[in-house]
């Protein structure tokens, strides 16, 4: 019993400390902006793409890692550097070259391997590109604080509310630990964070409230989608890089959705 308590305490300490490091690194590079933040996101994308590739392998698919990386990078730079009009050429390169490579592997792999690899890389790069683009706005630092603050609060509040009040399962076939009580607790707290950040920044409190509420209620889909994939791969986590948290993909699944949500909220309220 004493050993179990010590192991549990050590795991909690590792989780808290690694969480602090992740938050500090993200907010630090986010505050600096520019290439600092781009470098952080690209590094995270490389790791997340590899983790997704391994999950797909465990689920029975065999996409090519190199072309997954190419697709992820092409989608990311297409959104982040949209003023350079790289969308068509970058994605065309990834699409056509990865299909051509599939001909070489035709006797060993199916077209399904190409499809999941391209779709997975595109998903990661496209969503992360919106988060990077959000920081480049005139008041991008505040939008980043609102986005990250809302999604992190939603995750934490949903966990606490679910533990204390959880009775009704949200998606039992995908994530048996998530409850409707946790979902609503996370959504409400996320909306409150959006309101506070909006009121204390150029964003304004109504827009902050709207954005926080949308992030709290919709970013959970990013988590559920990854949970669905992990269930098919019979994996608990996407990796083991972050002590107490799992892999990089485990940490950014909801953040990627939050970045897209915030990006289009600010676009339509201006």
Structure explained in plain terms:
By secondary structure, the protein is an all-alpha fold. The protein is built from ten helices and two strands. The protein has a two-stranded antiparallel ribbon. The protein is globular. The protein starts with a helix and ends with a helix. Mean pLDDT is 89; it is low at 1-8.
Q: Which of globular, elongated, flat, extended, rod-shaped describes the shape?
A: globular
Radius of gyration: 19 Å
- Averaging pLDDT over every residue, what do you get? 89
Q: Report the count of strand segments.
A: 2
Report the end-to-end length measured between terminal Cα atoms.
Answer: 58 Å
Q: Low-confidence runs (pLDDT<50, min 5 residues)?
A: 1-8
Biggest sheet: strand arrangement: 1-2
The proportion of strand residues reads under 5%
Helix count, DSSP H or I runs of 4 or more residues: 10
- Please identify the structural class as seen in this structure: mainly alpha
Q: What's the helical proportion of residues?
A: over 70%
In N-to-C order, the SSE pattern is HHHHHHEEHHHH
Largest sheet: 2 strands, antiparallel
């Amino acid at each position: 019993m004493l050993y179990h308590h010590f192991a549990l305490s050590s795991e909690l300490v590792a989780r808290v400390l690694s969480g602090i490091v992740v938050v500090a690194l993200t907010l630090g590079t986010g505050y600096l902006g520019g290439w600092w933040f781009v470098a952080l996101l690209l590094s995270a994308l490389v790791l997340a793409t590899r983790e997704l590739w391994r999950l797909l392998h465990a689920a029975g698919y065999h996409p090519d890692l190199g072309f997954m990386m190419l697709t992820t990078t092409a989608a990311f730079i297409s959104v982040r550097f949209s003023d350079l009009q790289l969308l068509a050429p970058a994605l065309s390169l990834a699409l056509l070259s990865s299909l051509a490579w599939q001909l070489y592997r035709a006797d060993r792999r199916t077209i399904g391997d190409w499809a999941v690899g391209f779709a997975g890389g595109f998903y990661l790069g496209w969503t992360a590109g919106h988060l990077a683009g959000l920081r480049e706005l005139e008041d991008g630092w505040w939008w980043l604080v609102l986005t990250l603050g809302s999604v992190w609060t939603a995750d934490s509040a949903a966990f606490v509310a679910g533990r204390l009040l959880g009775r009704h399962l949200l998606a039992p076939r995908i994530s048996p630990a998530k409850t409707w009580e946790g979902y609503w607790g996370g959504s409400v707290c996320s909306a409150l964070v959006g309101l506070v950040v909006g009121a204390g920044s150029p964003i304004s409190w109504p827009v902050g409230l709207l954005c926080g509420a949308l992030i709290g209620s919709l970013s959970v889909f990013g988590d559920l989608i990854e949970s669905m994939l992990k269930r098919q791969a019979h994996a608990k986590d996407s990796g083991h890089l972050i002590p107490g948290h799992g892999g990089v993909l485990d940490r950014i699944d909801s953040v990627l959705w939050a970045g897209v949500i915030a990006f289009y909220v600010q676009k339509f309220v201006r």
